[in-house]
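Entry 14. Structure prediction run on the chain below.
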Amino acid sequence: MPTTSHKPSTFLIFPWGLLSIVLVLGLNLTLNNEWFSKNWSWIALVLIIPAAILENFKVGYSTMRIMFMKVVYSLISFLLVGMAFGSALTGYHIEKFQKIEGVKVINLPWYVLLALMVLLLIQVAQLFSMLKAVKREFMQMDPDQ
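Output returned:
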C-alpha cells in the first residue's frame, strides 16, 4: 500500500517576516537617506502590514515542519535585527563619544528602528501562537482528557 507524503505549501514555509526585515534593512542601507526619510511611512506600510497578514495566515497550521521553520526563521530574524541594532549603537558610540572621523557606520533612523521592533513583535506573536497550537495538539493526544 503506497503512502503519500504531504508536503506543506511553499506559502506556509516562506519567511514573510524575515523577508520584510531584510527589505527594511536593505532599503535603509542602499537608498538615499533623503529619499528614504521622506517615504519611510509608505515603505513601512508596504512591508510591515503584508508581513503581518501573511504570517497570520500560518497560525492554524501546526505540522512539525512548519513549526520548526517558524522557529528557525524567528531566530534568524532576531539575530539579524540584533546585529543591526549593535552596528547602529557602535556607530553612534564612535561618532558621539570617540569622535573618530572617517569611519563608515550604519545609521538606523528612529522609523527604521520602529519598523524593526514591530516586525519582531509579529515574530514573537507567531511564536506564542505556535506554542498554543503545540499545546492543543498534545492535549488531544492525552488519554486523561
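The helical segments are 10-13, 16-30, 33-38, 40-56, 64-98, 110-141.
Filed with the rest of this week's runs.
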